[in-house]
Design a protein that fits this description.
This protein has 214 residues and is of the alpha+beta class. The chain is built from seven helices and nine strands, in the order βαβααββαββαβααββ. Helices cover 30% and strands 29% of the residues.
C-alpha cells in the first residue's frame, strides 16, 4: 500500500531557510512559532541553539492545524548564532550594535552554530542536533563596515552577516557545512530524516521524503 510523503513543516520565518529547502527540491510549508527567544538564557552556544530549535518545533507541533494532524507531518525547527571572541552573537539590536560587532569580528574567525529539531508528529519522535561551521571574516575597512550596516542587511541577521547576500564579500572562507551558515544544514537534515526512518528520493520535479523500506 502506497504511503503519502510526509509534509515538511518549517517552523521558521526565515525566507533563506525556506529558499534553501526549495532549492534542494523540497516543498516545505511554513508555520512560524513566534516563540519568545528571550526566554532561553543558556550561554553555551550548542545548548542555546538546540534549545531554541526544539522550543520552536514543539510550539508549532502543539498548534498544528487539523488538516496536518490527519497526515504524516515532520516539523523542522532551527536556530543560529555566531560564537566569537567568547560571546554569543545573535541578531543585533541596532545599527550601532551591528557596527560594534563588525569592528570586533573583522579579520577574525567565529563559529556559526545552527540547532536543528526534527519532530515527527505521528510517530511522536523527536531528534535534536546541531552543526558548527567556522567562518573567517576579511579585515573589513571602516568604510566597508559602515556602508554595509547602512544597507540594513546585517541588522536582520544572526551573527550580523549573510553569506548569500551583500555580506558574502566580507567572508574569506568557511570550514564546515556551508548551508549550515545559511541557517540549515542539508546533510544534517538528511541524517536526521534517516534516524526517523525516512529516505530521500530525488526526481526532476522535487525531492521526496519516503519511509525506509526494511
Amino acid at each position: 500500500m502506497a504511503t503519502n510523503p510526509p509534509v515538511l513543516l518549517l517552523a521558521s520565518a526565515s525566507p533563506t531557510r525556506k529558499k534553501l529547502l526549495e532549492n534542494a527540491g523540497f516543498r516545505p510549508r511554513v508555520q512560524v512559532s513566534y516563540f519568545d527567544e528571550s526566554l532561553v538564557t543558556v550561554q553555551d552556544p550548542a545548548a542555546h541553539v538546540t534549545t531554541l530549535a526544539q522550543c520552536k518545533a514543539e510550539v508549532v507541533a502543539r498548534d498544528l492545524p487539523m488538516e496536518l494532524r490527519q497526515v504524516p507531518t515532520l516539523v523542522l525547527g532551527c536556530d543560529s548564532i555566531l560564537f566569537i571572541n567568547g560571546q554569543v552573537r545573535g541578531k543585533p539590536d541596532s545599527p550601532t550594535v551591528a557596527i560594534a560587532t563588525w569592528e570586533q569580528m573583522r579579520g577574525k574567525s567565529g563559529d556559526l552554530y545552527t540547532g536543528h529539531c526534527l519532530l515527527d508528529v505521528q510517530k511522536q519522535r523527536m531528534i535534536v542536533r546541531h552543526r558548527v561551521t567556522t567562518v573567517y571574516f576579511v579585515a573589513a575597512t571602516d568604510e566597508e563596515v559602515h556602508s554595509y550596516v547602512a544597507t540594513g542587511e546585517p541588522v536582520c541577521c544572526s551573527g550580523c552577516f549573510t553569506l548569500e547576500g551583500l555580506g558574502g564579500s566580507l567572508i574569506e572562507r568557511l570550514d564546515g557545512c556551508h548551508t549550515n551558515v545559511l541557517g540549515l544544514s542539508l546533510p544534517l537534515l538528511r541524517e536526521m530524516l534517516r534516524e526517523l526512518g525516512y529516505r530521500l528520493l530525488f526526481t526532476a520535479a522535487e525531492t521526496l521524503i519516503l519511509p525506509i523500506v526494511p
